[in-house]
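ok so dumb question maybe but i'm new to this and my supervisor (M.) told me to 'just get the structure for ATP-binding cassette domain-containing protein' and walked off. so i did the thing. is this what she meant?? sequence i used:
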Amino acid sequence: MPFEIRDLSIHLGGMPVLHGLDFTLPAGGITGIIGANGSGKTTMLRAMAGLLPPERGLVRHQGQDIAALPPRARARRIAMLPQSAAAPPGLTVRQLVARGRTPWMRPFLPMGPTDRAAVDRALQAVGLVDLAARPVDSLSGGQRQRAWIALVLAQECDTILLDEPLNFLDLPHQAELVGLLRQLGETRSVVMILHDLTIAARVCDQVLALREGRLVAIGPPGTVLSPEPLRETFGIGFDCTTLPDGKPVVLPAGL
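this is what came out, is it supposed to look like this??
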């Protein structure tokens, strides 16, 4: 099991944000996290990465307490891409992706053949080989997002956490990235925050819904992305239909 969350509670600034979360995520596939703004999605993702200490409870990854692992050991297990990541001006795509090798490299030593090969594979996977020498800040939004995904791939972790990876992308770039995420879910465990519920239905193997820091539902998209769980999650009604392939389409009621 990649993640076991047991009675997880977190306070930020003295205020409770997560309240006794308890669930298990299966190994492999894509889990989507949904909920309104302020529901605790990013806080939960950061706790799963070991970046926020629990007020109560624990997070286990592959049977080990994340809080007990040194940062370098955590970074070899779990890669996290935060929302709206930014690269220093002038940094090239290859230089950015190479930063994903930091957990595996010895301090103050240059990259070795294994590291360079990992960077090459990551660039190939996202289709940026021809743009490797370009500055990151000269790329389009979709290209930049692919560069950050390549950094995560170069880190070579079994588990990837993504905070709104489709945010600010136009429809063609969203479709492009969705295809890449599907490929990642075939060989890794991917946990990501999503706002588009129909995309969650198409891409995710399971969906986890939060409201005000509490777990509302977790399960297959067809179960969670249905009227009652969605009303409880967002406080409004939804119209849900099912396509011939069994995938739901979700819209707020009245649209």
